[in-house]
Amino acid sequence: MSVKHTDLVHAGRQDLRSLGVHALPVDLSTTYPLPDLGCGTASLDTLVEGHQAADNPVYARLFNPTVDRWERSLARAEGAEAAVAFSSGMAALTACLLAMRERGSHVVAVRPVYGTSDHLLDSGLLGNEVSWVTADQVGDAIRPDTAMVMVETPANPTLKLVDIEAVVAQAGRVPVLVDSTFATPVLQQPLKHGAALVMHSATKFLGGHGDVMAGVIACSEELARPLRRVRVATGALLHPWAAYLLHRSMPTLKLRVEHAQSGAMTLARKLANDPRISAIHYPGLAQGEACSILNRQMNGPGSVLAFEVNGGYAAAAAVMASVTLMTPAVSLGSVDTLIQHPAALTHRVMNEDDRQQCGIGTGLLRLSIGLEEPEDLWHDLDQALEQASLTTRQAA
Ligand SMILES: *Cc1c(COP(=O)(O)O)cnc(C)c1O
Q: What is the Å distance from ligand 1's center to 35 Cα?
């Protein structure tokens, strides 16, 4: 069962009636008056230890009520006990890696993941060591010092699906983190499949309007505490304005995700029969194993797809240069349609061999379908593909 509209509309707003307000209040305080010193000390201790709330917020790096309301809303959507918000998706992943350090420094991860996540893990910037494996090799890669297993499904940018339950079974005692950015809680709730932590770049669908950067981890209260401790200590906070925008976007999340998904299905079907492209990657057209994973763990294929245009880099660049309705830009999950070239942009930080090995070629374009009428989008993409084949034919 997918998340309910009722929960998306109401979760995290439980205190508004007693406050006597209807819209979400934005609290911009950086510090808070203390009724007495003892209360300040006790609240400070509580929050520094990673508890969700205390009698007094004390200082904005420790607690903010506007952020707390959105966290409760997101936790409800994921079916989680808790959620911890950060200033970006990368800040959220960083906090997980730091919080897990007490368990060990080894991470097992399945490619592909978002380019900068790949880079953060692979560079060892945070002192961790990573083993890159395929989804069926996770069990063999687990060591006594393995702190976390990370998968991304659907994966950015190839839309490859990972069977969460199969990975969880192999991981045993090691917590599994699922980057579920492409799915949102509307299409997939990884905790229900045994994952310990769910991550979102909330910059994408959760914000949904291309105007807020954020990240969030949903998990048990036990795992949330070390994440809050890291947040207090490192300061990668979500700003209350951003939390307000995110919370304001929650009631329309399911409407947006499902509407964009139906547009993506229409475009994917048209692209699948188009001689100007050589491959399409979209869970909604998947067969075999991917199709059975989709049916088992997702409520739908989503609205991001990727395709390989004939003519390689030059043709892909020409498509991006020729679209007029779609925005040629990185990011995804906005109300408008975005098109980008993963090898040159979002996954550029990976080394070329790794990139090719996980299927990110020079002709690959990623589309994030928005809320426009599919026929308008197709009209735009069709003329851009036509321009691209003209360009590449002239060059040949
Ligand atoms: C964008 C993205 C990230 C990074 O999130 P930011 O909010 O840009 O820091 C992580 N994972 C996925 C799947 C993404 O698409």
A: 41
User: Over 83-126, what HEC string results?
Assistant: EEEECCHHHHHHHHHHHHHHHCCEEEEECCCCHHHHHHHHHCCC
What is the CATH class of 5-252?
A: alpha beta
pLDDT digits (tens, 9 = 90+) for 139-158: 999 999 999 999 999 999 99
| 179 flagged as catalytic | yes
- Any catalytic annotation for residue 114? yes
Assigned CATH for 253-395? 3.90.1150.10
Q: What is each CA distance from 305 to 155, 263, 282, 301, 357, in whole angstroms?
A: 11, 11, 5, 9, 19
Q: Give the atom of ligand 1 at the shortest distance from the alpha carbon of 92.
A: 9
Give the burial class of 134: count Cβ atoms within 10 A of its Cβ; 0-12 exposed, 13-18 middle, 19 or more buried: exposed
Q: Record the tokens describing residue 141, joined without a space.
A: 């890669």
Could you identify the residue written with the tokens 């339950």?
Answer: 165
Quick one: CA dihedral 382, 386, 391, 396, positive or negative? Answer: positive
What mean pLDDT do residues 114-133 have?
A: 95
Domain boundaries, the chain: 5-252, 253-395
Mean pLDDT on 265-273? 97
Q: Please confirm, yes or no, whether 211 is among the known catalytic residues.
A: no
> Which ligand 1 atom is nearest residue 214's CA?
7
Among 309, 260, 310, 304, residue whose Cα is nearest residue 285: 304
Instruction: Tell me if residue 204 is catalytic.
Output: yes
Taking only the tens place, the pLDDT of each residue in 170-181 is: 999 999 999 999
Q: Let me know if 251 is exposed, middle or buried by CB neighbors in 10 A (0-12, 13-18, 19+).
A: middle
Pocket test of ligand 1: the residue of 86, 96, 199, 203 to mutate, having most ligand atoms within 8 Å of its CB, is 203
What is the structure's pLDDT at 393? 83
Nearest alpha carbon to residue 151 among 338, 293, 256, 364? 293
86 within ligand 1 shell (Cβ under 6 A)? no
Residue 133 contacts residue 141 (beta carbons within 8 Å): yes
Confidence check: pLDDT of 287 > 80:
yes
Specify the pLDDT at position 223: 98
